Structure prediction request, 272 residues.
Amino acid sequence: MNEELKARYRRDGFCIAKGLLPTELITTGINDFREVLLQQLNRFEIHETGDLKSDMEKLLKRDQVAYLSVLRLSAKLPQFRRIMSRVEIESACKKLGCNTPTVSASPVFHVISDNLRIEGGYFGFEAHQDWPSIQGALDGIVAWTPLVPVTINNFPMELVPGSHESGLMTGEITPNLYKVEPSNYSETEFVSVEAEPGDVVFMSFWTVHRTKTAGCEGFRLALSNRWEDASEPSFIERNYPCAYKNSVQREWITEGFPQKHEVISALDRIGT
Prediction:
C-alpha cells in the first residue's frame, strides 16, 4: 500500500491494490469450494462436468435448498477465511487509517450469474452505504476481492468517487441493506471497478456502491469482509457497538436426528 493509493482512498473513498494476494491462495479456495459442491452433486447422482459454473447450475436446477446450503457453507471455509484475514489486507487497512483493525464478522461469499439467479434472491445490490449495516467505527473499511476475473461486462462493482465525504445519506432501511435515495447521486458518477484474482478493493463504509447488472453477463465470484478500527474515538465512547448479532436455534433442526448408530458411524470415520 503506497502513498498514491492512500491518497486515492482518502480522496475517492476507495482504491484498488493490484496483485496484493498470491493467486495460488485463490486457486486453493476455489478448489475447496468445488469439493463442497461435488459432495452435493454426488448426493443427487449428478455427473460432474468440471466446469464450475455449469456444475453450480446443475445443482441449482436439481435442488435450490441444497445449492443455497453450499453457498452458506462455503463462506465458512477456512481457506476463504484465511484469504480475507491475510496480513497483507490487515496491513493495508492500518495504512489506510484503521489503526487497531478488528474483523466485524465472517467473510461474505458473493455469487452472481444470469443462470444462477434465484427468484427473490440476491442478484447484485442497489446503490447503498455499508455503515448502517454495522453501525460501528466511523472509519471502517470494506475489503473486496474477486475469485474470477471481473470486467466491465461481468457484474463489476460500481462506486461513486468522493461520496464518502457526504457521511450518512438519506435512504431507506431494507432487509438486506441501507438503500441510498437516488437524489444523492447521479448515474453518471458511478465508476466500474475491473479486477483480477489477487487484487483487493478497499472501500470506506460510507462510499456509495452497487453491483452493475445492466448489459452484464457471465459469472462472478468474490469475497468481502469488513474491518473496524478499535481505536476510533466514537467507537470507544459507544462501547464498540455492532449491529451484527449471533443467535442459536435451540429447537431441533432435523426432528429425530441423530440416532445412536448415526453418531457411532460418524465417529468411526475418525482415522479413515
